[in-house]
Design brief:
Cytochrome Bc1 Complex, Chain D, domain 2; 4-stranded antiparallel beta sheet; 37 strands; binds calcium ion
Length: 708
């Protein structure tokens, strides 16, 4: 017996030395198995992008270009929060699993809409101000008998599919002040994969793998190097450190893995996208200033990285935006496909990150195959066809010119997280496109702070001015589109123009259809081959989420979440209303042929009145207020103090009437339970009064311009 114990101990030590401590528990043989994730049953939707390739292509054909005119509402479910809804529902065994804002999960009978159970992780509302982009969540993962949800406050939770009870809960993030999670977990051979957001705060990007059965962390790969004095975790970090200058690690470095994670089962690689380096303005901490022998690319930010799925060890990387200073996250969904390129069949990655190029890479090696501008690009003037390295427009290096630079695309991205879909039948990729410029200007004498945005922008200078002509010009130039892109021919096949940006993700089906919801409160179906509008449904609310489809007993359903929100509702101020006055009705809509269900009547649009008190401050005070507001407040309350639909518009708030009331909120934290934390760490009482005077001044300017 003792001998056996010694032998077992020796064996376990040996195994540990070989890296077997990254081995997960025995894989599930019932419920959702690896074989099912690799080849999902025709009528089911088992993972975020439907299959490992993340093509979001359904083989179902009952709803088709021939029948879609008969599509009607089968059932709907009102959600219990009214914030941005970004999730793709999953369907297995007749049950629809949906995550909502605030990381809640609901399970519905997929045929009738009856609620089976719901789960609320009770995310502290104080998390909202440290999340860049609303309390959104993009989806759950299914595996074995479990449902996995990653919560805004940084936990990975396993629920039992049967009743929503908690099986385990693991803390994923290093702290709860800079890191939040909005992405959907993915599954790779017994491991649950997740990263985090936070590259605008003080975060060091990572992706981590957890044991599906126990919640134990199996491996963690950092995307940027840490403090060299503490030693590097691996060779990849040592290599990356040569591309960083200054004391980059003090802010964390960014490079957060907040959305794209794709498991390439063929090569056993986990492929993921990384976010911007921080601060956005590289001049502020000298992060791109390195010696002559190295460049300031800041690896592995704004890149696609591949690691071994078993161990998390680095395999390859491709950086899409070297020396990023525009918030060009590479976090948009990564799609795998088999394409014939130059007469050769290749297993490739297709990627359309924020920067406006459409990339094709070899999935196994990361070899660069092509990058084609698919939208207007001003930050880059050329692309090296061999290396994939862009030539940067010298004017776009705004920290070097010291001037304001308006870039196309901007920080919102030519394409962001809104899922793309690819039809192997048409050979086209369906991209939700944003055409939205963004202003950048380097802050002077910028200093890092313990909380809030760390972008080192001159936030007062980049706010949209209260000049009617400038506003009208900016509004006119800001649009959106559904673009069908032919990756092999490297050209646009067709396009549906939209009034504004920030429309929903897309779904492609074998019925020659593409589905998409819009910011203008419509859910529409187009022919996949030509882009002809065949059907649409008024959703009463803007849509940003992607639709999915499933079948029960041979009957096909199409489901989508409504609920306008996310960063575009909030941060762009006036521009957020480009497609109409934003309205959030958070709801799950499910359609089928011949569906006759009706939505309740839409509530009337709010009548927005501006009736501010008189401005009593000084211009210098308002200018200082603009600066502090821009840095700490605008991310939630909107550019130039114009809010979207979700957070209070301070110009209309009663709190600006009285200096003491305003301070009680901003400094005293009087409204912290609703998410408005005290900012006393970084905002003094004088700053608070300056913000109040700035908001009053802005409100009066807008009233003079006739609102809104
Ligand atoms: Ca970012």
């Amino acid at each position: 017996m003792r001998l056996g114990l010694v032998a077992a101990l020796a064996a376990s030590l040996l195994l540990a030395a070989c890296g077997a401590d990254t081995k997960p528990s025995a894989l599930p043989t019932e419920g959702v198995t690896d074989a099912m994730l690799a080849a999902p049953p025709e009528g089911e939707w088992l993972s975020y992008g439907r299959d490992y390739a993340e093509q979001r292509f359904s083989p179902l054909t009952e709803v088709s270009d021939q029948t879609v005119s008969k599509l009607g509402l089968a059932w709907s479910a009102d959600l219990d929060t009214a914030r941005g809804q970004e999730a793709t529902p999953l369907m297995h065994d007749g049950v629809l699993y949906v995550s909502t804002a605030w990381s809640m999960v609901k399970a519905y009978d997929a045929k009738t809409g009856a609620l089976k159970w719901s789960y609320d992780p009770k995310v502290p509302r104080e998390t909202l101000p440290v999340a860049c982009c609303d309390a959104v969540n993009r989806g759950v993962a299914l595996y074995g008998d479990k449902v996995y949800i990653a919560t805004l406050d940084g936990y990975l939770v396993a629920l039992n599919q049967k009743d929503g009870s908690v099986a385990w809960r693991s803390e994923v993030v290093p702290d709860h002040q800079s890191y939040t999670i909005t992405g959907a977990p993915r599954i790779a051979g017994g491991k649950v994969l997740i990263g985090s957001g936070g590259a605008e705060y003080r975060a060091r990007g990572f992706i981590a793998a957890y044991d599906w059965a126990t919640g134990k962390q199996l491996w963690r790969f950092h995307t940027v190097p840490g403090d060299p004095a503490k030693g590097f975790e691996d060779k990849a970090m040592e290599t990356a450190a040569k591309t960083w200058g200054g004391d980059w690690w003090k802010l964390g470095g960014g490079g957060t893995v907040w959305d794209a994670i794709t498991y390439d089962a063929k090569d056993n690689l986990v492929l993921f996208g990384t976010g911007n380096a921080e601060p956005w303005n590289p001049g502020a901490n000298g992060r791109n200033k390195v010696g002559d022998a190295a460049n300031g690319d800041n690896l592995y930010t704004s890149s696609i990285v591949a690691v071994n799925a078993d161990t998390g060890e680095y395999v390859w990387h491709f950086q899409e935006t070297p020396e990023d200073r525009w918030d060009f996250d590479s976090d948009a969904q990564i799609t795998l496909a088999e394409l014939t390129i130059d007469g050769r069949q290749r297993h490739v990655i297709m990627h359309a990150p924020k920067n406006g190029y459409f990339y094709i890479l070899d999935a196994k090696t990361g070899q660069f195959l092509s990058a084609t501008p698919w939208t207007q690009i001003t930050w880059s003037t050329a692309m090296d066809p061999k290396t994939g390295r862009p030539t940067i427009n010298p004017d776009a290096r705004y920290e070097q010119t010291g001037k304001l630079w308006v870039s196309l695309p901007g920080a919102g991205g030519a394409h962001s997280w809104h899922p793309q879909s690819y039809s192997p039948k048409t050979g086209l990729m369906y991209l939700p496109a944003n055409v939205a410029g963004f202003p950048y200007m380097a802050a002077k004498n910028w200093k890092e702070s313990p909380i809030g945005f760390q972008t080192a922008q001159d936030s007062a200078a980049v706010a949209l001015p209260a000049i009617e002509a400038v506003r009208q010009q900016t509004l006119a130039a800001t649009t959106g589109a559904l673009v069908a892109w032919d990756p092999v021919a490297k050209k646009e096949a067709w396009r549906v123009p939209y009034k504004g940006p920030w429309n929903g993700g897309t779904l492609a089906t074998a019925g020659n259809l593409v589905f998409q919801g819009t910011a203008a409160e419509q859910f529409a179906a187009y022919t996949a081959d030509t882009g002809k509008l065949l059907w649409s449904f008024p959703t009463q609310s803007g849509v940003i989420a992607a639709p999915m489809t499933y079948a029960i007993g041979g009957e096909q359903y199409v489901a989508v979440l409504t609920g306008w929100g996310g960063v575009w509702d909030i941060a762009p101020g006036l521009l957020s209303s480009k497609s109409g006055i934003p309205r959030n009705i958070s709801r799950l809509l499910v359609f089928k042929l011949g569906g006759t269900a009706k939505l309740p009547p839409a509530p009337p649009l709010n009548k927005l009145v501006l009736d501010p008190p008189a401005f009593t401050g000084t211009d210098a005070q308002a200018a200082h207020g603009a600066d502090v507001y821009g840095r700490y407040c605008s991310v939630c309350h909107g550019d130039a103090a114009i809010a979207g639909a979700l957070n209070p518009d301070l110009r209309r708030s009663g709190a600006i009437e009285h200096a003491d009331a305003f301070k009680a909120i901003v400094i005293g934290g009087a409204l912290h339970q609703g998410g408005m934390i005290s900012w006393k760490q970084v905002v003094s009482p004088d700053d608070a009064e300056a913000i109040r005077q700035y908001v009053i001044k802005r409100a009066n300017e807008d009233k003079a311009l006739g609102g809104p």
